[in-house]
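Blackboard transcription, Thursday session:
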Amino acid sequence: MTVAPTPTGAAPAGAPAPAIRATGLVKVFGAIRAVDDVSFDLAPGRIYGLLGPNGSGKTTLIRLLTGMARPTAGRAEVLGTPMPSRPILARIGYMTQADGVYPTLTVGENARFFAAAYGVRDRASVLEALRLVNLDDRLDAVASTLSGGQRRRLSLACALVHRPPVLFLDEPTVGIDPLLRAEFWAHFRDLAAAGATIVVSSHVMDEADRCDELLFIRTGKVTARGSGDEIRARAGTASLEDAFLRLGGAVEATR
Amino acid sequence: MSGHRLFAFFRRVAQEIRRDRRSVALLFVVPIVMTGLVTFIVREGETPVVNAAVVNDAGAAGIGATAVLDAALAEDGGSAEVVADEATARVALEDETVSLVIFLPAGLGTADPGTVTLLTDGLDPSGEATQVAAVQRAMLRAVGTLTGRPLPTIEHTTLYGVPSDDPMAPFAPAILAFLAYFFVYILTGISFLRERVGGTLERLMATPITRGEVVLGYTLGFGLFAALQVGLLLLWSLGTVEVPALGPLPAFSVGLGLANAGNPLLAYLVVVIAALGSVSLGIFVSTFARTELQVVQFIPIVIVPQFLLSGVLFPISSLPEILQPLVWLMPMTYAADGLRQVLIAGADLATPALQLDLLVLTGVALFFAGIAALTIRREVA
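(Written on the board underneath:)
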C-alpha cells in the first residue's frame, strides 16, 4: 500500500483528479468553529475514515462536502463541481446517522422511492442495492417491523440505489452487531474496488484499520492523515487508540 | 421539475396515509360523525312550542286537517286554530299571540292539493326553522291520515328576511369547510413533522429533488385524500337515501339531506381548494414544531381563530366591530362564504362573490405553498 502521507494540500502532480477536494473549509456556528480551515484531496476508489470524538465536527464536515450546508469560508468540490450543487447530488450517496427511512413503507417501497428521488428509473438497480445488503428477500416487509440492523441495512441500500461514485456514510455501523459490521465493510470494500470513493465517519477505532486512509478530526481540524500503520508509526504507539489520544490532541504534530 | 420524481413522491405520501389506520379514520369517519352529531343537536335539540293560526281556504277538509294538526301540536304544548281571515292572522303574528300562520289552499285533499304556505315573522331564523320543521311533520301526517291523497307542497315565507326551514342550513356550509380544512391541516402537519425529525427530509434533501417537488408532491398526496374525504362528506351531507321499514326495523334515512340550491360539484371545488391550502399550512406550521404534540398546540393559534372569526358558528355580522377586519384575513371566511353562496344562494361560476372566494382560496393555497417551500431548508434550491 503506497500512500503518500501528505496530511493536507493538493494531490501530487500526475495523480488522478481528486473525487473530493476541500480548500480552506470553515463553518462557524455562533462562537463555535465546527469546521476550522480544512483542506484535503481524496482520490477516487479509496475508503477514507473520518475519525474523531463526538462533536469534533465530522458530521458538519460531511454536510459541507455534500452541500447540505454552505461553508462560512473556503470551498468544497465533489467530482470537480463546487458544492452546493443540486445536479451533482444524483452522483452522491449519503447515509445519515439517523436511519432516515419511512417506517410505514415496505423495504421495496422505501428503496424505490429514494431511487425515484435520485432520478433512477430501472428496478434492477433497486434490487441490486437490496441484494447487496441482503434484504432482497424482505421486499414486502414494512420498515417498522424490521430489526435495528435490518433498518440500518435498508438505510444503506437507500444510499446505494443510484450507484453513486461518491459515498458519504455518517457513522454507518453505530449500534449494529460485529457480524453485520463485517458485512458492511465487505460491501464498502467491493464498492471501492468498483471505483467508488467512500468517506466513512466513525469514532470506533477498530474500524479504522479497514480504511485505506484515516483523517483524524479534532475540534474542527484535521490533526493527522495517513494509513493506520503510518499513523501508528508516527505516533510511536502499538494501537490506533493510543495514537489517536496522542495525535488527536496535538495539532502541531502534523504541521 | 421531474414528473417521474413527483409521481413517486405522490405515491409514497398516499401509501403512507393508507397504511395509517388512525389517519384514515380521522379523515373519513370523524367528519361524518361530527356533522351527524352537530346536525342532530341543531335539529333535535329543542321541541318547539307551536301556536299556529290557520287561514283555511280548504273548507271541510281544512277544518279536519286543523283538528288533527292541533292534536299533534298539543303533544308539545302547542295548538292550531282556524282564524277568520288572513288579516286577523297577520295581526296575531305581529302581536306574537301566534308564532306561525298556516295557509291551507283550496285544493287540499284533492288530486291537486296545491301549496300550503307557512308564514313566520323571520326575526329568529333558527328558532322558526325548528317550528316550521315541527309543523311540516305534523302537517304531512295530518293530511296523510285524512285523505290518503297526494301531499301538498309546503312553502315557508317570512314577514321579514329570507326563510329557512332547516335549522342546520345556516351552519352546514361553514362546518363542512371547516372540518375538511382542520383534518387536512392536522394530518399534513404531523406527517411533515415526522419527515423533519425522522431524518428522511435530510436524506431527501441529499437527492436532486427540488423543494417545489416536495411541496407539490405532498399537496397531491394529501390532496387525493382530501378530495375523497370532501366527496364523501358532501355525499353524506347533501344526500338522503330513504331506507324503508323492514320487519321490526323502522324506516330511516341515511345522509343529512341538507338543502343545496347550487351545483354540488362547485361546492366540492370550493372545499377541495380550501383543503389544498391547508396542506401547505400544515407543512409551514411543522417548521415551528419539534413534536407531534406541538403541532396540536398550534391549533389554538391557526385553527381556532378561523373557527371563531369566519362565520362558522357566529354570523360575521354579529361579531364586534373591532374584530371585523380580521374576518377578511381568515382563509376559512372565503371557504365558508363560497360554500354558502353555492348551497344557499345557488351561485354559479358567473357569480362575482363566488369568483372572489375561489380566487382568494387559490391565492392563499399558492401563497402558503411558496412559504412552505421556503421553510424546507437547504442550501441548494
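Lecturer's comment: The interface with chain B takes residues 66-70, 84-87, 89-90, 92, 94, 96-105, 109, 112-114, 116-119, 121, 142, 158 of chain A (CB under 8 Å).
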